[in-house]
Write a structure and sequence with these properties.
queuosine biosynthesis, 2 domains, two-stranded parallel sheet, globular
């Protein structure tokens, strides 16, 4: 069979199975060095915008070159997975948790599906080697997603898609199989600056650049020290992550409710009042967030965030 036809056929096969497994989009990019992104990453790190996220400065070369993560890598398969919930608890007068953390930790849910996809590829196509990534290694996932045509990088630095907005997870397969690549899509943000204007901590100094050290998600999750007093009164009741820049984005009017039971919130999470959060015990914390990404902050970290959010 002609090589180009085979690359097309294999790509179509993988995309069909990804859809069957529940992934929203599947795009493919040719594996290679991310030359343009190298300068952006270097400047971002030099300006200290990674805050205490020291790991962002590690493995610089691996971050930019997938062949250093998977020997003989030929293709980067990028997949998106919807997590937009039925109910948005942030609209209630209470302390707020980012929507992605309502249900079971996405790392585990999506990794299981990715492993199923790899098994399918190996059984249907043959001896294909590679690795799966769910926000768990030095992979510049948004840049690869843009190259693979899954969406474009918005002014808030998150990936946007015309059909579903931005409330989705990204994951990747880096494999040594040559596949037909997809063309990138154009930027549809236009002159809109709603995400930049809405950020209460001024964490988006310029288009597509987020100063991680000022982002509410960083302050409530990654930062291990006390939250700097300059952010007092600016947290807008967020205690784990933040969705402000996504909530104001016009493209998210196209968000549709996810169909993944694992991402449904614990039944007791709905209706939590500010007082319930303030009086939260470690036992209730463990029960509420048994399988959730919120466990990352640990009980003490969440208590710190709640306490800081109270200070106006």
């Amino acid at each position: 069979m002609n090589k180009e036809i085979q690359k097309h056929k294999n790509a179509a096969l993988i995309k069909a199975e990804a859809k069957r497994l529940g992934f929203s989009e599947c795009g493919i990019a040719k594996a290679g060095f991310l030359e343009e992104e190298a300068d952006h990453l270097e400047n971002w790190l030099k300006q200290g915008m990674h805050g205490e996220m020291g790991y962002m400065a590690n493995h610089f070369d691996k971050r930019l070159d997938p062949t250093k993560l998977v020997e003989g890598a030929k293709s980067v398969v990028v997949l998106s997975y919807n997590y937009f919930p039925e109910k948005d608890f942030s609209k209630q007068d209470t302390y707020k948790v980012a929507k992605y953390a309502y249900g079971e930790d996405y790392h585990y849910v999506i990794k299981r599906k990715l492993k199923d996809l790899v098994k399918f590829i190996q059984s249907e196509i043959g001896d294909v080697n590679g690795r799966v990534f769910v926000d768990s290694a030095p992979v510049m996932e948004r840049q690869w997603a843009q190259k693979a045509g899954v969406g474009w990088i918005g002014k808030h630095s998150l990936l946007l898609n015309r059909q579903m907005g931005s409330f989705f997870f990204l994951s990747e397969l880096i494999i040594d199989l040559e596949l037909e690549a997809d063309p990138p899509v154009k930027d549809f943000c236009g002159t809109c600056t709603r995400c930049i204007d809405a950020c209460p901590t001024d964490a988006i100094p310029q288009k597509g650049v987020v100063d991680g050290s000022r982002c509410i998600s960083y302050l409530t999750i990654e930062l291990k020290d006390q939250i700097p007093t300059e952010f007092r009164g600016k947290m807008n009741d967020w205690i784990f992550g933040c969705d402000i820049c996504q909530d104001v984005c016009p493209w998210n009017r196209f968000s549709k409710q996810h169909q993944t039971p694992e991402f449904n919130p614990h039944e007791n999470l709905e209706g939590m009042t500010k007082n319930d959060w303030i009086e939260l015990t470690e036992d209730v914390f463990k029960e509420l967030f048994k399988k959730s990404a919120v466990k990352r902050t640990k009980f003490e970290g969440l208590q710190r965030n709640i306490s800081f959010a109270q200070k106006k």
